[in-house]
Amino acid sequence: MSIEKMAMPQLGESVTEGTISQWLVSVGDSVNKYDPIAEVTTDKVNAEVPSSFSGKITELLAEEGETLPVGQPICSIEVESAEHEGVSSQERRSPAVPVSEPEANDTSMKKRYSPAVHRLAQENHVDLEKLTGSGRSGRITRKDVEKFIAAGSETISGKVSEKRDDLTRTEQTGAASFSEAARQAAPIQIPVQRAQNEAGDVDVPLTGVRRAIANNMVRSKHEIPHAWTMIEVDVTNLVNYRNQIKNTFLKKEGHKLTYLPFFIKAIVAALKEYPRMNSTWAGDKIIEKKAVSISLAVAAEDALYVPVIRNADEKSIKGLAIAVDDLASKVRNNRLSPDDMRGGTFTVNNTGSFGSIQSQPIINYPQAAILSIESIVKRPVVVNNMIAIRDMVNLCISIDHRVLDGLITGHFLARIKELLENISAENTPIY
Question: Which domain does 324 fall in, by range?
């Protein structure tokens, strides 16, 4: 016996590192050579990494979500000496061993779906629970899903015809028979028609980042019951105050003072007063997060990133301004690390920077809410029974209705509104 280390493979010509998005094995598992052991994401591809050896997993050297350079060990495998002589464990098995041996009945990997399998099943409305996996330990492979879809396509017309005949007979036997027939009717799998290229169309390959965004957004919309509301806020005092101090702040601190830090400061203060807004759904309970860390949606040329301002409740407006500037610079220069993206508890989306006045953001899973700050625009409003020109902004919030309801969300927004409308040099320190 000897211990061999599996290294992070190079999954592309110019790829220098990869992120372990999911382990497909655990310590103590036995694997054969070429069995998939992990899913790895790079800036170019999302792929399964096969084992280089046959043996037993003795140690996982990287956490899920950890990024490692190409060539760095990711796990240790205990292998037999025959492995180094070019004989795999599969080849050493006796042909007399029956197929009913214990590992043939092992289905421990049945529900460990790869992103490719999960996406294909969702696109074609396939219930993965009903499939039998041909992979190791019952794991469902892409070929299993494609085979199921193909089988459904061949019999779809016959199923539809049979179902129509059943319904016709049911109508003749009354409502009670209809209920029984409907209950017993077999479900029909109808593959989704995929878009076809036409002349002049351009294929844009999916980057690892864009694929990760897509998967997270689909998961959020599928799992989280979204609710949405909006309030308008008079930020005339904020606009005037910021205009008075922005030039001095730039000269003194070397950073621009935008409106965003003021909004974040008010949001963070309201989160401290209403901690349920700073929560996550955990299946059988709701977890109110102690830390108040703001995920900030920042757009780049090819994707939307959501880096995190950690412990935002401990920062002044100056500290928030510097943090916002630093994260935006990292996004522009492609210097974000995985650590910059972890730990967010509530998301702020500055859609106003694009001129938007109203939006319905998708919640950043697994958080419970996301708030969009829209454009500040001058509008005529009624103040003290007189029409005045004021600087107004819409704040739009999407919430997880499992965790939050209209009452607490309304109080939360009202508190943000109060804080923003009462900004002044006297009660809003920058430092």
Answer: 224-421
Polymer length in residues for the chain: 431
Do 164 and 129 have their domain in common? yes
Helix axes 406-421, 260-273, angle to 10 degrees: 130
Q: How many CB atoms lie within 10 A of CB 254?
A: 9
Q: Which two tokens stand for residue 70?
A: 């190409």
Asked if 170 and 178 touch (Cβ cutoff 8 Å), the reply is yes
Strands (E), 186-345: 226-234, 279-281, 286-288, 294-299, 304-305, 308-309
Q: Which of 125, 255, 401, 411 is catalytic?
A: 401
Task: Identify whether 405 is a catalytic site residue.
Answer: yes
Higher local confidence (pLDDT), 353 or 195: 353
CATH number at residue 144: 4.10.320.10
Given 127, 165, 302, 405, the catalytic residue: 405
Q: Tokens representing 115?
A: 């992103």
What tokens were used for 321? Answer: 């301004």
Q: Are residues 86 and 129 in the same domain?
A: no
At 262-308, the pLDDT tens digits run 999 999 999 999 999 999 999 899 999 999 999 999 887 767 789 99
Cα(326)–Cα(7) distance, integer angstroms: 33
Q: CA distances (Å), 207 to each of 42, 121, 211, 212, in order?
A: 8, 21, 6, 9
